[in-house]
Amino acid sequence: MANRSDYNSIAKTIFILTGRIFCFRCNRPYCGGKYSTKKGSVFYYGDLGKRKEAADSLCDSGSVKKELLEDVVKKDIKYFLLNPDNIKKFIIEKSNKRLNNDFRAIEFENKKEKINRDIDRLLELYLDDDIDESIRNSSIADKLNEKKEELNIIENAIYSINNKEKIDRLREERINSLKRFLSNIKLGMLKFDDIDWKRLISFFIDRIEINCLGKINRTTKLDIYLHYNFNSLAIENIGKITQRFVNQGVSRRTKSVL
Fold first, then answer.
1. Which candidate in 61, 77, 182, 248 could, as Cys together with 84 as Cys, close a disulfide (CB 3.0–4.6 Å)?
2. For 190, which DSSP code?
3. CA–CA distances in Å: residue 229 to residues 87, 178, 203
4. Residue 21 CB neighbours (<10 A)
5. In contact, 169 and 119? CB cutoff 8 Å
6. Helix (H, G, I), strand (E, B) or coil at 181
């Protein structure tokens, strides 16, 4: 029979990454847990993809000690909090690299034209009464939605390129506001408790992915991918542009800690 004190200690323990952390390989959430040893209790994050009731095929990702994982994430966030200028450098470099090197306006226009042709063909199929209704309402409708989403992304890209100067100016204003906000936060950072850290992580990070091998007490590989939402904070209310396209979801990979 499980010890009630175990449940109480888990309930009182704050896992600051819960809701943001996922397995890099199986995409299942990592959740907090605890087990007891002769030396005391060990708190950890474990992959739900390893449980039969949560996944059809079991993932072989490893569990990670709570303090090890949380310390790495805190250290990376402090990189920005202690020097807010890093945010500006991070966002601008990502944005310029994506827009200037990877894409051209003419390429987007060609892609837009092709997607519109695909949508026209799919609409003809969708309206064709000779095609089974179940097929029209499932596969054809799904493909239509996918194409419409692609078209929206392309149109955002074209807008971004054609209005780059205006976007850069507005982004600069947002980044400066964000930097002032971070400067105020770092003054009280030494007094942060787990609740403060959880709120901060929820505010600045969209998603954390980990690629882990080994056991809780013997982690042999741990790569952590942090997907920051700095860009969405910096370009809030700027038209319909999304960080998903402009910066491909501003993210950074921490160095392997092992």
1. 182
2. G
3. 11, 12, 8
4. 25
5. no
6. helix
Distance, in Å, from the CA atom of 88 to the CA atom of 232, rounded to the nearest integer, reads 13
Tell me how far apart the alpha carbons of residues 138 and 101 are, in angstroms, rounded to a whole number.
Answer: 38
Contact between residue 154 and residue 210 where contact means Cβ atoms under 8 Å apart: no
pLDDT of residue 232: 63
Looking at residue 257, its pLDDT comes to 47
What is the distance between the alpha carbons of residues 221 and 138, in angstroms, rounded to a whole number?
A: 42
Per the CB < 8 A criterion, the answer to whether 174 and 233 are in contact is: yes
For the cut 70, the answer to whether the pLDDT of residue 235 exceeds it is no
What are the phi and psi torsion angles at 2 (to 5°)? -70, 145
Q: Contacts from 49-56 at CB under 8 Å and sequence distance 24+?
A: 49/23, 49/25, 54/28, 55/26, 55/28
The tokens describing 127, both together, are 């309206």
The tokens 């392309």 sit on which residue?
A: 154
Which amino acid would we find at residue 183?
S
CA-only gyration radius of the chain, Å? 23
Alpha helix segments (H runs only) across 188-249: 194-204, 230-234, 243-246
Cα 75 → chain centroid = 18
Contact 243, 249 (CB under 8 A): yes
The pTM of the full predicted model, rounded to 2 decimals, is 0.58
Using DSSP, state whether 77 is helix, strand or coil: helix
